[in-house]
Amino acid sequence: MPLAVRYMVVPIAFSIALSLCSPSAAEVIASKSYSYFDIRGKTADELDRELSRRGPTASGSSARHPGATKIRFGGEATYIQNNGRCRVGNVKVTVHTQIILPRWSSRKGASKELSMIWDALSSDIKRHEERHAEIARDQARAMERAIRALPQQRSCEAMQELVSNESARGIEEHDRQQARFDRVEAVNFQKRMLRLLNNRINGRAGAK
């Protein structure tokens, strides 16, 4: 089953606050939360069916996935008007990520082999979704830097439009990076799982 990110991206809303003289400031606020969905099963096929039946869905699609990351961008900017020119004052970009992960609720009594397979799979799902959250945080920082570096304009209306266009470009770039990451992960999924299983098998053998 391929791993995938689900997006819930909200455009950045920018407010206008004018001042004659004020120092510039920038800030990125990143937050993260977790939620879980329970699955049951005593065989690999049962767990796979549960993931297909209970996993989170994508927006506009009924397909379900073993994990997901919902991403919400927000923020605000203020503008400083002085001597007939307008520039960006304070910039704040926020990004919240909610990571949705599976939780095996009927693990007790399962075979050691199935537990090992699940541990490898669930750790890979979590790593995958954590990386999606990291990409979002990195892009929020890049957006803050890009907005802060925008050139002065003749009016604050023009400055606001420039900021809005830059934020839209930033979100588009974010989506491209996330999609690129998913493509790479999908290609390498089988090799990655075999490597994880071999590492766990070798780790168990070394512990005996």
Automatic annotation (TrEMBL):
Superkingdom: Bacteria
Entry keyword annotation includes Signal: yes
InterPro entries in the record: DUF922
Chain intervals for the UniProt region annotation (Disordered): 49-68
Annotated signal peptide: 1-26
Keywords, ordered alphabetically: Signal
Protein name: DUF922 domain-containing protein
